[in-house]
Write a structure and sequence with these properties.
There is one protein chain. This protein is mainly α. It contains 7 helices and 4 strands, in the order αααβαββααβα. A two-stranded antiparallel ribbon has the order 1-4. The protein has a two-stranded antiparallel ribbon with strand order 2-3. A hairpin with a 3-residue loop joins β2 (85-86) and β3. The chain is globular.
Length: 152
Amino acid sequence: MLGQELRDRIETCGGNVAAMALVEGLYLDVDRQTAAVSCECRNCKTCCDFQRAGHRLYVTGLELAHFAVKVGRVLIPSGGACPYLDAESGCTVRQIRPLGCRTYFCREPQGYDAAAVTERQLGRIKRFCDREGLPYVYVEWLEGLKLLANRE
């Protein structure tokens, strides 16, 4: 998908009030679910440097749109780490971090299945997009941020 087309799709989602409310509710649900099984991010900053940790973070267009609305100014990533990672304090956008950041834990507690939690929530987003006629977009986090930052 071309950059401009992807940006347009994400911006379409950002203009939908119900979509933004869905994302906020979804994040609250996930935070409750992870707290219930004693999952806790210790903000060690390890997983925020995707290149060093050897993984990638993917987000939906609704999440990117929600993030862009809430953060105000989207930072352009450079290198393999999240641009919102502060070397001293860790995540600087903790309250609005995406689903993948909420469900992944460097030390996954026994009995917790991050993939299952994530897939349930992605299913909710997909069903919402289908019902509302919104585009369903799934993109790598750093690439999505680059696209959004370049629109400003």
